[in-house]
Amino acid sequence: MTENLITYAIVIFVGILAIFAFTIGIEKMIKVILGNYILSSICLAAWQSINLAVEIMKKTPELRFMGFSYDKVANFLSNGNMTIVLIIYVIFLLVIYKTSKIKIWLPTDEAMKKMLQIIFVPLTVISMILTLQIAILGINGINITAISSIANTVANNPYIFQFVSLTPVWILLHGIVTILITSEFKVSVKTDL
């Protein structure tokens, strides 16, 4: 029962993200997608920085910071690492969503706008899921061995297992597709024939 409950929760979460992405419009979706790539780096750096701070503090546990021993601060940071990184992710995603100065020019054709919206909804949902995975798992979010063991314990559904197992591939493909869709290429070929 719990395996099915996890699958249902994931499907509901993806559905909520899809509804959110569809309602915010193309410009905001592009900002969220681009912001998630920046946030992936920030989340990885924050995760590793917290781990580094914990290691440094554990070398001198008798020192104090704001009245607390380094040992207690290190334990707090170690235990709250995922929560701290998720809070950073949510705050910065909201900042990017609300205040980003990224300018996006969209085609004036309504049919083209609708087609772009249909394309960008899954890209936005996938970018949010992948960045959340990195925010939650840290460097293990892109470590193939760690991903496989996590996929075995969490995903009883073969599609979810495959998605989690192939995270580095999804990040790569998602980035390439986003660049190709959001870029305007002008190619001209001249021959002297």
What does this molecule look like?
The protein has 193 residues and is mainly alpha-helical. The chain has one domain. The chain is built from eight helices and two strands, in the order H-H-E-E-H-H-H-H-H-H. Strands 1-2 form a two-stranded antiparallel ribbon. Strand 1 and strand 2 (68-69) form a beta hairpin. The mean pLDDT is 75.
- What proportion strand? under 5%
Give the helix/strand class. mainly alpha
- Tally of separate helices: 8
Mean pLDDT: 75
Helix content: over 70%
Q: What is the radius of gyration?
A: 21 Å
Q: How many β-strand stretches?
A: 2
Gross geometry: globular
Overall structural domain count: 1
Low-confidence stretches: none
Q: Can you describe this structure in just a few lines?
A:
This protein has eight helices and two strands. With 193 residues, it is an all-alpha fold.
Task: Record keyword descriptors for this entry.
193 residues, mainly alpha, two-stranded antiparallel sheet, 8 helices, 2 strands, 77% helix
Present the secondary structure layout:
Elements: H1 2-24, H2 26-59, E1 64-65, E2 68-69, H3 70-79, H4 81-99, H5 110-137, H6 144-154, H7 158-165, H8 167-182
Antiparallel strand pairs: 1-2
Helix pairs in contact: 1-5, 2-3, 2-4, 2-5, 4-5, 5-8, 6-7
